[in-house]
Every structure is written in structure tokens, then in C-alpha cells.
Amino acid sequence: PNVTDLHLKLISTFIANNTNIAHPPRLFPPKICSSLKRLALQRVIISLPRTYTARIGAIYEELALALPNVEFLHLRVGKYPLYFEDFKFLSSHMKRLRHLAATFDILYWPQKRDPLLDSDFSPSPSTLYLEGTMQRVNPGEGDVQRVANGLHQLWPKGVYCCPWATRKCEESFWLQLNDAIARLRASQGLEKAVAMSRYGGRKYIAERITPELPRFTYRRSFD
What we know:
Blueprint: E1 5-12, H1 30-37, E2 43-47, H2 60-66, E3 72-76, H3 84-93, E4 99-104, E5 128-134, H4 141-154, E6 159-163, H5 168-187, H6 193-198, H7 201-204, E7 215-220
Parallel strand pairs: 1-2, 1-7, 2-3, 3-4, 4-5, 5-6
Helix pairs in contact: 1-2, 2-3, 3-4, 4-5
């Protein structure tokens, strides 16, 4: 119960490339989520082998509910990116999350629907340092604005974004994203909005150094 740092490495013995599954196994099954919830976790890394391509049900709400006090979360789960609804789960259920590293999909972010209008939604009271990479490249201006709007509403206290790996195709996206978030904050009269995007997010968002976590290997069969 006193464990605060955890590297959960998922190893599957499931037959890869089997896509004919009526009910795909879960990446975060209830038994595992229940075990995680009993720990006083603050920093968590979850990884899945890059070679794993079988169909899995990645329900991030279950994970978010299991990690309410986590401040640092790094998801190395290959082809299972975060979508807008997943960010919403993290914002709503992980109120202390301040550093998130993950792959996410820039499509399917709402254009008009305001998540704050949902009766059961409450945004995060924390600032967020988002370190990520996109599953899809070549985003348009509309994509940037949709992601900026969504992140700003989910973390109204402030968001700073940066790529976790240098990819030429993503450089302009991250610059535009931070500028778009800064403009949203400036339009609402929030302090240091423009400075946030231009003079280093780590001074704006409380600096978090990626922890060197002890590795805990969990072997399970996805069948």
C-alpha cells in the first residue's frame, strides 16, 4: 500500500493478429484496476510491447478511476492512442495529474460541443504538462484549434504541450497548439497566457522530471 512509483509492463501471450474477436480482451481489466486503486501511486508508467497488434479494448476511464492521485502518467501502449473522450476521463478523474506522456489522435475532437456543459463533468484543478506524439500527421488549422479548445476546457488552469520525440512533421503542430492555447487564455484575461507558449512551459507548469521507476512486470494472457 505504500508503493508510490510503478512501471507496469504488460506482456501478452495472446495470438497476435487475431482480429476476429467478438468481445476483445481489455487492456486494463477490472482485476488490475482494482489492485492499482489500493496503492498510493503518484508516478506510473504503463508499457505494452510495440510488436503487439491484436485487438484490445482500451478503456481509459477504468484506468483513470484506478489512479486518482497520480501526478505523472506515461502510457507506452503502442497503437492504442488517447482520444478526446479519454482526455476527458483523465481530466475528470485524475485531479492531481500534472505530467502526461502519451500518443493521441487529433481526429474526433469536438468542434462545437462544450465538455463543460455535461452535467457530470468537472475540469481538472491542476495545470498539465502534455508530452506526446500524434498517431496521425499533417494536421490542418482546424485540427489544431479543436485540440486547443478541448485541452483548455479540460485543464483551464493551464496546459503546455511538447513532443516527446523530435519529428519534423510535428514541429509546427506543437508550436501552433501552444499559441492557440495561449490565445484562448489571453482572451479570458488569464495571466501569463502569451508568455506560457513563448518562454518555456516548464517555468509555467511546475517542472516534473521523468522519474526512474522500478520496473514491475505483470504477465497476463489476453484470452
